[in-house]
Specification:
By secondary structure, the protein is an alpha/beta fold. It has helices at about 35-45, 70-80, 110-115, 145-175, 180-195, 210-215, 240-250, 260-270, 275-280, 290-300, 325-330, 335-340, 350-355, 355-360; strands at about 1-5, 25-30, 60-65, 85, 90-95, 120-125, 225-230, 255-260, 305-310, 315-320, 340-345, 365-370, 380-385. The strands form three sheets. A six-stranded mixed β-sheet has the order 3-5-2-6-7-8, with helices on both faces. Strands 1-13-11-12 form a four-stranded antiparallel β-sheet. Mean pLDDT is about 80; it is low at about 1-20 and about 45-60.
Length: about 400
């Protein structure tokens, strides 16, 4: 083992042949057919994947890597002057539209449910726009009915998963397996919630083992959900009665709502940055939908960002709220976590106040932390670590 010198913190110590081990946040865009899922996906990823006005245009999931807008990167780089600035990235998956009966195999239900099990969060697009040229599978716009359709199919699918897992656990209990008895109790709690029409995400376990058992079931209704109200261009603030109804529903579900016009976002992607900013300003919008959706998705997943840099590169990273310094180091690379020595941390506010890292050190604002330090949102961190030979 050899210690990395203070001139080799963070990314600078990475061997070019070793890829970072950051696990990307993955969110799945779901909803009924023709609610604007693929249009929103195309706008957010600028992928240009064709979307048509008929159900099941999306068959296999489209996947895009999306940069997370973070103005703090620009602030930091005013003082650090790095040649490359890399935002945090998350994975967005556009999943086939779901219809009533999907849990029984209707439409592309089995494919839909299979793909959604793999994501960390659900972005549920709900149609609030009116357009006689865009077919609605149920014949009319009713966001609450549409939400209930999707929620019911997810719950039915979860009940089937719970029943299969319960059968297996009962057999193990008869063989005197104590852990299976614990799992069976958790499954009974899940069944009770689902049969009463409640999602599993409302279950909270203080015991880490219980929480792990629940996660291992990969239940659809256990995933956090963000409702995206796809509105008309003349209702960008989401003031309509339909959006208010979704907000009420979201409060009951412990979730949030972002109002977005997928059509407008599509138009914005076709403009150069200066024209895009001018158009947003003319509409009274401070930011694009991507920023709102990314921030809200971070919030429902309990995530935030920290920053690291080397001589060439400034980069944002995603970490769970409450993560300690070694875990944050491991987001950059597993070697950082294994050989963690300490973290040198300063705030963006101090960088602005003192103008440089040198100024921060001279004023005693660079803090040194060990393994117990809990990373804060917006921390700028140098990690020092031992690197295996």
């Amino acid at each position: 083992m050899r210690p990395v010198s203070k001139d080799q913190p963070g990314l600078a110590a990475l061997d070019a042949t070793l890829p970072p081990t950051e696990s990307l946040m993955e969110a799945g865009i779901v909803g009924l057919p023709n609610v604007g899922k693929s249009a929103l996906f195309n706008a957010l990823t600028a992928a240009g994947i064709a979307c048509e006005n008929y159900p099941f245009c999306t068959i296999e999931p489209n996947i895009g890597a999306v940069s997370v807008p973070d103005p703090r990167l620009d602030i930091i780089n005013r003082y650090l002057h790095r040649s490359r600035v890399i935002p945090a990235v998350w994975k967005l998956v556009d999943i086939a539209g779901l219809v009533r009966g999907a849990s029984l195999g209707e439409g592309l239900g089995n494919q839909f449910l299979g793909h959604i099990r793999d994501v960390d969060a659900i972005l549920h697009v709900v149609r609030c726009f009116t357009n006689p040229n865009v077919i609605h599978v149920d014949g009319s716009v009713d966001p609450i009915r549409d939400i209930e359709t999707v929620d019911m199919e997810l719950a039915i699918a979860d009940l089937a998963t719970v029943e299969r897992a319960s059968d297996k656990a009962r057999r193990a209990v008869r063989a005197h397996d104590q852990e299976s008895q614990m799992q069976l109790e958790i499954l009974d709690l899940c069944r009770a919630r689902l049969e009463s029409g409640q999602p599993v995400r409302g279950l909270v376990f203080e015991d880490a083992l219980h929480a792990d058992m629940l996660r291992e079931l990969h239940l659809l209704t256990a995933k956090p959900v963000l409702y995206i109200a796809n509105v008309d261009e003349d209702d960008m603030a989401g003031t309509s009665h339909d959006v208010d109804r979704i907000r009420t529903r979201a409060v009951d579900a412990g979730s949030q709502v972002v109002a977005v016009s997928a059509q407008l976002e599509t138009e914005l992607t076709q403009l150069d940055p200066s024209d895009r900013a001018e158009m947003l300003q003319s509409l009274g919008l401070a930011e694009s939908a991507l920023a709102s959706i990314a921030r809200s998705t971070y919030r429902i997943l309990g995530l935030h960002s920290f920053f690291s840099h080397n001589a060439d590169e400034l980069r944002a990273w995603t970490v769970r709220i409450g993560a300690r310094a070694p875990e944050a180091a491991g987001v950059i690379h597993s070697d950082f976590q294994r050989g963690f020595i300490r973290a040198e941390v300063y705030s963006i506010e101090d960088l602005v106040a003192y103008g440089s890292e040198k100024g921060i050190k001279e004023h005693g604002k660079l803090s040194i932390h060990g393994k117990d330090y809990i990373v804060q949102d917006g921390d700028v961190i140098h990690f020092l670590f031992h690197l295996s030979k």
